[in-house]
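Summarise this fold before class:
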Amino acid sequence: MPSDEKAGMEMHASLQDAKGRIPWNIVFNFTGYAINIVITFLIAPVVVHRLGESAYGIWGLIGQAIGYSFVLDFGIRIAVTRYIGRHLALREPDQINKVLTTGLAFTAVSAALALAGGGVVAYFLPHLLAIPPHLVTDARLATLVTAATFATSFPGSMFTGCVAALSRYDLLNIRNVGPNVLRALLLWFFLRQGYGLLAVAVISGGTFVLAYVLDLFFASRHLPEFKIARRFFDAATLRTLLNFSFYAFVMTIAGRIIFMTDNLVVGFVLGPAAVTYYSVGLSVVDVFRSSLGNINNVYAPLASQMDALRQRDSLRALLLRGSRINLVYTLAGVSALVVVGPSFLGFWMGSEFITRSGPVLVVLALAGMGYALMSAPQQVLYGMNKHRMNAWLSLAQGAVNFPLSAILIRSMGPVGVAWGTLIPAIIFDGVLLPIYTARVLDVPISRYCLRAMLPPVLAALPYGLWLWFLRAEGLIRGYPSLVLAVGSGLLLYGSIAWRVALDSEDREFIRRSLRKLMPKA
């Protein structure tokens, strides 16, 4: 075999391996999602009721405030993921080591800034929020612990990016689920023993760090010729990463404004107790939205390798299929959250949460539609290094979100903050970004709408109407009837979506995937 042909086959091997892992990645993503749902379902009432409204609200606000330190990664993690995926496709192990070592060196600055910022927030916290005197010391210590946790996340996320670039979502789900189970067990035990806010911070921080240790282990085992050494630090590589990461950094800032200001607005205007009710509705939507993110993340490494190998037709197919699958998946959850979500909150947390958290849940669930429509385009643009416009659109969305939420909360209460999130999400995420991405890849907008958007919506209508009928007739009265209602609705939705929302290539891909997953005789 000629050397050029052999080299070409070797370069395609990484992409083919990533494609071959898609069935198992889907299985592991859904398994991890289901386990995390159960964990959240079981542990959230314990944390809310054991901490109490004020302490739980303070904990939510600490997470929001310190969570802004994520912007200090300056977009370097997604840059590392993108370029490691690219060098995997091109079979360049030394370049992979340069990217990883250089990225790690850069994150030392981010970690130091996060620690310093956490100290400042801890000092001024009682002056910023109306914290009961007996909780001031614990709140300050919890802030410092949380800041230290975020500081370790910067170098840790480099290894998370490595595992994602390898398309090893089986390993990513192990690192997610294992520490989450441990966190839930520890929280249950220590809260029942009478420990409070500080214990929650220490347990949460420790298990997050454990997840990053697992990332390091997995990356060292599976990356080719894995090495971290001073000789691999490279100024040219740093410039390349920063040129990519600048726009990712802009998107990170916008994302924090969009997803992390809600509790702050509610807390500053209505007080910590109101944050509890808003956070409960938000947390349910966040669990579902995060699950979509876990599935979506498979697209960026694929797109990076396709772009490296100049497979433009494959990128178009990835955009259409990824958008369609995202919407099929999202509508399964959004329909249930909108129709029966408030009833679930009543069974789960207590009847008062139906009216106080239910409207927030419904509006934020609808905002998830925008997230579903933007996710595949965003990941494809990342893989192609074409995410500049995405960055400016995200920043514009965040600039609209915050003041709109601050205005609407005055007249509508907490649900106004949710509307302040929904309206920009539909405009920027659901309309403008998909249109832009389709144009970058020369996909007609009409084709995108007819292939990626319309079929899932048509398939979901009977499902939503079925759930509405069951609720209206008073047939959902507890967990068993709720599970039966949603389960029967999903069977209906799945049977319709198989024919209406999926095309022949999708169905054939699923059949091949199922054959791969079946144990061989």
